[in-house]
């Protein structure tokens, strides 16, 4: 039998042609069943040799079953019917070759779209009148010697067989058929027909009826264990060109993903792979609702979720969420203190003040007791979030880029919201930076320059604690709007500045070179924010020493969180929601000085 030629086949249940890679075909035994049309009840014989030759599967065997089907196959072959062969195998691993791509299998080149079964186990070989591989063939040779091929009609009836023998045979057949019909009782017509056709006795018929009468157990679908959530996650990262893959995926997962998805992983393929692993029996995305339900672990009978596609999408999305989050201005992070809160209640910080300076101790004397009071500052975290969706069009278009685009938008949205909340609080500071707090200066001589910065530095250095003594904290950050970025950079980097106020211009040494780290925010001069100014600037302490403003994050989570789920019944697609829990509040006015920069 030429069981398989190594070419492409049209197989029921598969949208595109199927090629069986003989290099990955497992043959458990040289003795495999030979059947008719892959029907377990229509046995014909068994193989005695199976081998791969020249990219084809070849088998030999004997007709060893004493069934009506076996006799029919032999008789038809004797009459010249051109039987073909077909293989029955269980698929363990397959690869989808996309359109415009090619693959070499069994020594032949195949152009996509085509499914290549990379691993399979041979179950049986069948005689068929028209096979999926139209080039196969199966022939029956006359058996020599005392072998067991029941060809049917090879020997003549025994001489002298009389009418009595024929009547006895007819009576036995009539009795057998009557017994079959009595057992089936008109309730199992398919079993009755097969029993009469294949010569079943009463015992065999009764057994089949008993089996058919039992309640059927729920179908259990064996998942493809070679595909795991980690492998699909790695394939997504590879397709999305994420940098530093070795830091987020194991070497084994990357290797399997590279081999299995050589041409990249599409969004449809990701969902179908997860759905199949979770028990989905289809092979196409035609029933998108069922695919999504199975991929997200819903609606699966008698099984458990093997792959959580929601978790995969969330993990993949989080990597690109951070790209969007860090793509916006983050000056706020350089000028604020950060604290961890465990809930959404208002939290209060206490700063101890009072008589805390050491006193001289006389010889043999006792240490004097200091006195402590406290100053309080409050903060509170709130939740901010947004929901976006990968809709059915993205899935139908097989757009894996949607998995990266949507989370980038959510990440960017979170970064923008932090800036909005932070700078709204920071710039609404008329009562915080005030003359009464001795941390506000104004006038023509406060414009940013050597003289203005000197005045701001002196003002900062003159700030005192509750005892009226110097705070001991040094200014370290010069915060400016975009219009003052160039001047601020000059003051930080230049050794000398040019005096342009006189007719004779001359260099002036810059006493502030390298003193204060420059931070530039575009929010300071934006007209949408209260307190905006293109001329005002700030001199601030290091936030780890004495912060003027504080950010509070729930459970210390500074980056936003993204979650993924199947859409509601009213929608078709995948939903992604990003949220962030944080709060912001001004803290100690002695941590900074504001200059109006003008009169």
Give your account of this protein's structure:
Among the domains are: 127 residues, no CATH class; 44 residues, no CATH class; 79 residues, no CATH class; 108 residues, no CATH class. It contains 15 helices and 25 strands. The strands form 6 sheets. Strands 1, 2, 3, 4, 5, 6, 7, 8 and 11 form a 9-stranded mixed beta sheet that branches. Strands 12, 15, 22, 23 and 24 form a 5-stranded mixed beta sheet that branches. Strand 9 and strand 10 form a beta hairpin. The longest helix has 27 residues.
List keywords for this structure.
599 residues; single chain; alpha+beta; five-stranded mixed β-sheet
Task: Produce a short descriptive summary.
Among the domains are: 2-128, no CATH class; 170-213, no CATH class; 229-307, no CATH class; 443-550, no CATH class. It is 29% helix and 27% strand.
Topology (elements, then pairings):
Layout: E1 2-4, E2 8-9, E3 18-20, E4 25-26, E5 33-36, E6 39-53, E7 56-62, H1 68-78, E8 84-97, E9 102-105, E10 108-111, E11 114-128, H2 163-184, H3 189-198, H4 202-213, H5 229-239, H6 245-248, H7 251-260, H8 267-277, H9 288-295, H10 309-325, H11 332-335, E12 337-341, E13 347-355, E14 371-379, E15 382-391, H12 392-396, H13 401-427, E16 440-441, H14 450-461, E17 475-480, H15 485-493, E18 496-499, E19 506-509, E20 517-520, E21 537-541, E22 549-554, E23 561-566, E24 573-586, E25 592-595
Parallel strand pairs: 3-11, 4-11, 5-11, 12-22, 16-25, 17-20
Antiparallel strand pairs: 1-7, 2-3, 5-6, 6-7, 8-11, 9-10, 13-14, 15-24, 17-21, 18-19, 21-25, 22-24, 23-24
């Amino acid at each position: 039998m030429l069981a398989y030629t190594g070419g492409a086949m049209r197989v029921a249940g598969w949208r595109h042609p199927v090629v069986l890679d003989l290099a990955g075909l497992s043959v458990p035994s040289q003795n495999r069943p030979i059947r008719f049309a892959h029907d377990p009840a229509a046995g014909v014989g068994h193989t005695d040799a199976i081998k791969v030759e020249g990219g084809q599967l070849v088998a030999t065997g004997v007709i060893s079953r004493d069934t009506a089907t076996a006799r029919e196959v032999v008789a038809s072959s004797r009459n010249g019917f051109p039987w073909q062969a077909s293989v029955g195998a269980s698929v363990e691993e397959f690869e989808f070759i996309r359109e415009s791509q090619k693959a070499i299998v069994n020594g032949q080149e195949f152009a996509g779209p085509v499914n290549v079964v990379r691993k399979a186990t041979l179950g049986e070989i069948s005689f068929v009148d028209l096979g999926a591989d139209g080039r196969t063939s199966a022939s029956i040779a006359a058996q020599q010697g005392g072998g067991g091929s029941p060809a049917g009609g090879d020997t003549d009836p025994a001489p002298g067989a009389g009418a009595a023998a024929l009547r006895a045979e007819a009576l036995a057949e009539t009795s057998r058929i009557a017994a079959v019909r009595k057992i089936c009782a008109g309730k199992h017509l398919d079993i009755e027909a097969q029993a009469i056709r294949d010569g079943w006795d009463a015992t065999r018929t009764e057994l089949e009826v008993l089996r058919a009468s039992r309640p059927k157990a729920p179908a259990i679908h064996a998942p493809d264990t070679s595909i795991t959530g980690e492998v699909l996650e790695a394939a997504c990262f590879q397709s999305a060109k994420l940098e530093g893959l070795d830091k987020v995926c194991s070497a084994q997962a990357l290797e399997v993903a590279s081999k299995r998805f050589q041409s990249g992983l599409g969004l449809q393929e990701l969902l179908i792979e997860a759905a199949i692993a979770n028990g989905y029996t289809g092979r196409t995305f035609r029933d998108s609702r069922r695919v999504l339900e199975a991929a997200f672990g819903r609606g699966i009978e008698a099984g458990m979720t093997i792959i959580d596609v929601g978790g995969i999408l969330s993990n993949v999305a989080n990597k690109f969420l951070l790209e969007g989050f860090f793509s916006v201005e983050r000056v706020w992070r350089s000028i604020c203190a950060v604290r961890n809160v465990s809930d959404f209640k208002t939290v209060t910080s206490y700063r101890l003040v009072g008589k805390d300076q050491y006193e001289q101790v006389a010889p043999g004397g006792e240490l004097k007791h200091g006195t402590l009071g406290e100053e309080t500052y409050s903060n509170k975290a709130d939740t901010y979030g947004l929901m976006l969706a990968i809709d059915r069009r993205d899935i139908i278009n097989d757009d894996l880029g949607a998995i990266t685009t949507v989370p980038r938008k959510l990440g960017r949205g979170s970064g923008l919201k932090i800036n909005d909340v932070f700078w709204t609080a920071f710039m609404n500071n008329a009562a915080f930076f005030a003359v009464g707090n001795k941390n506000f200066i104004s006038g023509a001589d406060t414009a940013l320059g050597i003289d203005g910065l000197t005045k701001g530095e002196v003002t900062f250095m003159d700030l005192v604690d509750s005892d009226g003594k110097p705070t001991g904290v040094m200014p370290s950050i010069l915060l400016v709007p975009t219009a003052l970025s160039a001047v601020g950079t000059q003051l930080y980097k230049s050794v000398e500045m040019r005096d342009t106020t006189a007719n004779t211009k001359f260099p002036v040494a810059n006493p502030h070179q390298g003193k204060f780290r420059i931070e530039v925010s575009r929010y300071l001069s934006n007209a949408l924010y209260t307190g905006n100014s293109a001329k005002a600037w700030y001199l601030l302490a290091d936030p780890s020493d004495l912060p003027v403003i504080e950010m509070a994050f729930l459970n210390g989570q500074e980056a936003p969180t993204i979650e993924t789920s199947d859409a509601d019944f009213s929608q078709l697609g995948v939903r992604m929601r990003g949220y962030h829990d944080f709060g912001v509040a001004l803290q100690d006015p002695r941590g900074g000085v504001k200059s109006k920069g003008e009169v």
